[in-house]
Specification:
This protein is mainly α and 352 residues long. It has a domain of 210 residues: Up-down Bundle (Rhopdopsin 7-helix transmembrane proteins). It has a two-stranded antiparallel sheet with strand order 1-2. Helix 2 packs antiparallel against helix 4, helix 8 runs antiparallel to helix 9 and helix 10 crosses helix 11.
């Protein structure tokens, strides 16, 4: 009678629910968690500041061009991702238990996947854009403008939100037997399935999400990116053009390499997690490897602004000017306040 009211989970999730933290390893885990929390806190604070700086400089200090629109959208996606890092830090600081509720669990995870899809789609679009600039310069000159690129970015954000929707729907808070709460997938939702259908349903749903994000957010964008730059190099070689646009190409290549290095481990472990449904021996490897791989993927949003600065000297100069203007303004306000205080003191002395 009571079993009917208890939550039903997929077999893989049920195995995770049954796992408890060993009491004899609490001290070692506590020391490791402290280091991890400190690192995540520092990285989140630094990444939020640098992405805000890039958005401020590109959005308000640089003339609006096609290139600046691409960078602006990449920086906006990275800022969303890094803004979610402090909440992941809170999760780690509280011993790996989620205490912010189910709705925020869904939103927090959705931001992670939204950034994954937006970054992949934008990098593919930027690569196609550079390919057309080299291969079809006259056609692109007549049709390519800031408004068109802005619309393309709007479509990319809309597609990314659509791709993120299943991850929002299936995310849930799940209580472990040791009292900790997971913010994880719960594929046994939204359908009243018979018990003997549960395993098949869970396997189908997890396989669909794991392989679809591998295909849409990694393999297809990577094929488009590599193919575009192969054609770009062929076109430049045939025309014997000088390295006029290599500065931005160098930036895009650096961003793409960062994207591959940071996201490839996450996709590999996501696929292994799906395979672990059929091969339970892989569950231990996935449990130890997937969290660091997810943390590494956050690093992509930290590296991108650094790559913008080092690959674009003009952007670096604008940032220095902006910081100099801010510092000058602050100093001017402080000096003005100091001068007013001194004049007030002198006036009171003279009056006495």
């Amino acid at each position: 009678m009571t079993t009917s009211s208890s939550p039903v989970y997929c077999p893989l999730i049920q195995a995770m629910v049954n796992v408890s933290m060993p009491s004899n390893s609490s001290a070692r885990v506590g020391a490791l968690s402290l280091v991890t929390v400190c690192l995540h806190g520092l990285v989140s604070a630094f990444s939020i500041l640098e992405n805000l700086l890039i958005l401020g400089v590109v959005g308000f200090r640089i003339r609006r061009t096609v290139i600046s629109v691409w960078i602006l959208n990449l920086a906006a996606s990275d800022l969303l991702s890094t803004a979610s890092l402090p909440f992941f830090t809170i999760f780690l600081a509280r011993g790996g238990t989620w205490t912010l509720g189910t709705t925020f669990c869904k939103l927090h995870s959705s931001v992670f996947f939204l950034n994954m899809f937006v970054s992949a789609f934008l990098l593919a679009a930027i690569s196609l854009d550079r390919c057309l600039v080299v291969l079809k310069p006259v056609w692109i000159q007549n049709r390519r403008n800031v408004r068109l690129v802005g619309r393309v970015c709007g479509v990319i954000w809309a597609l990314a939100i659509l791709c993120t929707l299943p991850y929002y729907l299936f995310r849930d808070t799940i209580r472990r037997h040791d009292g900790r709460i997971m913010c994880y997938y719960n594929y046994a939702q939204y359908l009243n399935v018979r018990e003997f259908d549960l395993r098949e349903l869970c396997e189908a749903r997890q396989d669909a999400l794991a392989f679809s994000k591998l295909l849409l957010a990694f393999i297809l964008p990577l094929v488009v990116i590599v193919g575009s730059y192969v054609f770009v190099n062929i076109g430049i070689t045939r025309r014997g053009r000088r390295r006029r646009s290599f500065r931005f190409v160098r930036l895009v290549v650096a961003v793409v390499v960062s994207f591959v290095v940071c996201w490839a481990p996450y996709h590999i472990f996501s696929v292994l997690e799906a395979v672990a449904q059929y091969q339970p021996s892989l569950r231990g490897l996935v449990a130890h490897g997937l969290p660091p791989a997810a943390s590494l993927s956050f690093l992509n949003s930290v590296l991108n602004p650094i790559l913008y600065v080092f690959s674009c000297p003009d952007l670096c100069g604008k940032i220095r000017q902006s910081l100099g203007a801010v510092l000058e303004s602050v100093l001017a306000e402080d000096l003005g306040e100091f001068s007013r205080q001194r004049s007030t003191q002198h006036s009171s002395i003279d009056a006495s």
